[in-house]
Structures are given as structure tokens and as C-alpha cells.
Model the fold of this input.
Amino acid sequence: MRSRRLKLGQRLALSYGLVIMLLILVSLSGLSMLSELQKNTSSALKDRYAKTQLVNEVINDLESIARAMRNTLFLNDAQQIREQLQDINTAKFSMAQSLAHLKDSIHDAEGKEILHEIDVIHSAYIVNQEDFVELVTDQHMGEAKNLLLVDLHPYQIQYFNALRKLNRLQSASMAEASEKIATSYLSARQWMLALAATAVVLSIIVTVWLTRSLLRQLGGEPDYATAIARRIAEGDLLSEIRLNKGDESSLLYVMRTMRDSLIERTETLEMTNMELEATVDTLKRTQNELVASEKMAALGSLVAGVAHELNTPIGNSVMMASSLVDMTESLSEDARANTLKRSNLDKYISEVKQGSEILLRNLRRSSELVLSFKQVAVDRETSQARHFLLSDIVQEIVLMMQPIFKKTRFELSIDISPLIAMDSYPGPLGQVISNLINNVLVHGFEERTEGHIHISARVEGNSSVLLAVEDDGCGITPENLPRIFDPFFTTKLGRGGSGLGLHIVYNIVHSILQGTIHVNSKPGVGTRFELLLPLSCIQ
Done:
């Protein structure tokens, strides 16, 4: 009852004083909460950071796979081996899920770079792991052990190193975040202390000024204005606001104007939101259609290339197998009818021999094509790196291909200093040189009886070597020059060319040898392939 007898000025003064006290209490409570927040946040960053947990899960799964693969080589019981293989598959599936979550949660450039490195290693590791499981399933334990020691063990070391690198990056991120939290906490604490002190100093001045100004602007008890403000705050924008004469400068007039403005803006925002939702839906559909179109185009190109090359040998094999079945059925009918003649038997044996040779030749061609297709996905760790002299590697390749040149009038010359030494991958480098020479013999010297191939090399700067393979053949037409490194592109489609030779060269140079390759060619003059390679690409 006493509170109702207080005048408006007294009630405002009392309320404002209570607000100031509450502000001080809130500030002190906020400091306590910030301290607790810092402690909890630091604990969460250090002990329960989600990305670090995911990396640790991948490491644990990788260790489980490595342990299970080792166990399969020492176990003799078939059931125990199957259990280990099941453990490998389970860990592989868990590891794939963890990697997918990592890709979704890491967005910084350095983290993405490490994830890309992990993705490359993971792809090669999974391929070799599947080969290992297949060898163990087929009881080829010697080959499985060799695969584990030669290929899978180096991949495991690289995989662990990359994961540890990512773990170190996340640890650094956690430390940086913890420092930012501590800095923010100190800054907030200083500001809150300053605000609390300022509030105490200004409370007396503001209380007097606010009381007098409110009395003038309200013109009496503000119960009705308070009720209107409460309804607007609750979202009621349709209630009537009564104005008395001369209220054009009062709080109620401002509140009604504000309410009308809110209604207009709300309607505008609703219309805008509907338009934005329709636009977003259209963009999502367009994006999905574009992605699906690109995937289907790439898949169609690959399938068409593979099908075209495999169609002829497989078709020939099917036709010959069908012929052999028919001949065998005819011979069986003669045998059952006791009308079999020696001449028919001799003819059958001769035809079966010829058919078997044709069948074997076409199947070998299919096998060669499949091996070529598999070689498109060149991995950077498919060969051992070592120190070697470039001239020795080129001489070995030339010596290996010498029988081909003895049967022709084609010439091959070498101009490479015996002092150029490299720390690289001699196997893939030899394959590149062989493929380039074969490309000249098949395409550059087509329908020619003589020609010259020149291989040269010189050191560029202090860390690179420029290796060139040049010929005086028929050259490459301008319309084909930009496409020579594309998979399945060949000018001999259907005539023995698979279109993978130069594509394999491009992949090896860029992914394994860590270099670049360029080509210059003029029709009727010749072609020059230039490889810029690092003298050392061993990490």
C-alpha cells in the first residue's frame, strides 16, 4: 500500500537506484561467470576438441588395420584369419567415416592441404589393402607378406606422419583459441569494471535528470503506456492505441508510429523471405542438375572409351568361343552316331588349335588394355626412390629398345652429361622415356622408313634438369596438340591405340617426378617434348 502512495518521481528514483544495484550485481556475477567460462572452454579445447578426437579415431583405426594385417600372417587357424579380416573391414569403414567428418569440420587452408595429402595416401593405401585381403583370402601368404612389407608399410608410415601433422595443427589451433579466450576474458573484465564504476558515478546525475524528463514527457502515470508497450513487445500489433488531444509529441504517439512501421516492415520481410526461399530452392535445383550433368558426362566419356577398346577383342573371343562350342557339339553328335571319321577329327583338332590361338590372342589384348586402364591412376609411391645418374638410366632404356631399332632404319642419339645426378624415381622416369620413344615410333614415324630421335638434358639453375625428347617425324596437327595428354585420346582409335600412353606420361611426371611436361610440334617438321624435373624429389 505504501508503494502506491509514493509520487512518480520518488518511484522512479527508487526504481533507478535498484537498477543501479542490480547492474553492479550483474557485473560481479558476470565476472564470475567469465572466469568459469574460461576454465570450461580451455578444458573443452584441450581435452574434448572434436577434430582432435576424430584424428585420434583415424589413428586408432589405422593401428587396428596394421595390427590385424600383421596377425593374419602369423595365424594358422582359418577362423582366426577370417576374424582378423573382419576386423580390417570394420576398422576401414570406421576410418572412412572419421575422415568424412574431418573433411566436413576442417575449413582452413593448411588443414585442407593436409587432408588432401591424407586423401591421396588413403586412396593408395586402401587399394593395396584390398589386394592384401584378397591375397590372404586366396591363401597367398608369401605375396601378402611381400605386399605388406614393400607397399603397405611405407603407406602406413606416411599415413601416420600426415595424421600427426594434422594433430599438431589442431593442437596449435587449440592453443591459439585458448589465448584468444584469455585475452577476451581480460578485456571483458576491464570493461565491466569500468562500466560498474561509471554507473555508480553517473547514477546520482542521471537519476535527477531522468526523473524530471520522464515526468514532462509522460504527463502523468504511465500505466496505459506500459500496457501498450507490453502488448507490442509480446507481438500484438493490432490493438488500438488511444491518443488524447495534444499527444502528437508524447510517448504514446511515438509508440503508435513505431507499431505502424513494424507492421509495414514485417509484411515486407515476409514477402522478401518468400522470394528468397523460392530463389534458394531454384538455385539448389540448378546446382544439383549441373553436378549430375557433369558427373554423367565424365562417366559417359570414360565408359565409352573403355567399352570401345574392349569391344573388339572381347567380341572376337565370344565369337570364337561360340564357334568352338558348335564344332564340339557337331563332333559329339558324330561320335554318338558312330559316324566319326579320322579326317573329321583331324579337321576338328586343327580348327580348335587355330581358334584357341585366336581366343588367347584376343584375351591377351583385353588383359593388356585392362592393365593400361589401371595404370591411369598413377600413385606417387609405386616405385622406390634412389640416387642415380641420368645418363645411366637413359642408356639402359636405349639398350632395352635397341632390338626394335636394329630392325628399322630409325636412329637414336643421346646428348646427356655423365655428371647429372638425381635423387628421384628411376623406374617411373624410365617408363616416361620408353613411352615417349614408343609414341614417336607409332605416331611420329608412321608410314616412314627412316627418322631420327634425339634425347638431351641440361641442368637448369641449381635444382632442376631439362630433359628433351625430339624427333623429325610427321609432327602433331594444331587441333590435336591441346588434347594429346587427355585419357583415351588417340589418332589410332580402333587400330591398336588405347589413348593412354601420353596420359600416363603426364600423370607420372606431375605426380611422382614432381615436374612439368610441355610439347612443341609442327606438322611435317617434328615434335619436341620437354620435361622440367627437380634434381631431388625425395622428401
